[in-house]
Design brief:
With about 80 residues, this protein is mostly helical. The protein has a single domain, classed as Rossmann fold (3-Layer(aba) Sandwich), CATH 3.40.50. The protein is built from 3 helices and no strands. It has helices spanning about 15-20, 35-50, 65-75. About 0% of the residues are buried.
Length: about 80
């Protein structure tokens, strides 16, 4: 199979750029997971009012649920 394929399952250069442009950048842009989003909004606003950093948060669960996206939004 030396032929170059049009569809290739391997990661290509530039694939990660598309992934990051599609991710939400604000908490309000995240769809679904309403309870988690509301809890995070309360935690973030309370930390801002106290002018203190947010305590540690651990996201866990199977792949594809948005844990990394939530972490990026919070950062």
């Amino acid at each position: 199979m030396d032929k170059e394929r049009l569809i290739n399952p391997d990661v290509q250069a530039g694939d990660d750029r598309v992934d990051y442009t599609l991710r939400p950048k604000l908490l309000d842009e995240i769809t679904g997971q309403d309870q988690i989003r509301e809890n995070l909004a309360i935690l973030l606003s309370a930390a801002k009012l106290r002018k203190e950093p947010l305590d540690h948060i651990l996201f866990y669960g199977p792949p594809g649920l948005g844990k990394t996206t939530l972490a990026h939004v919070m950062a």
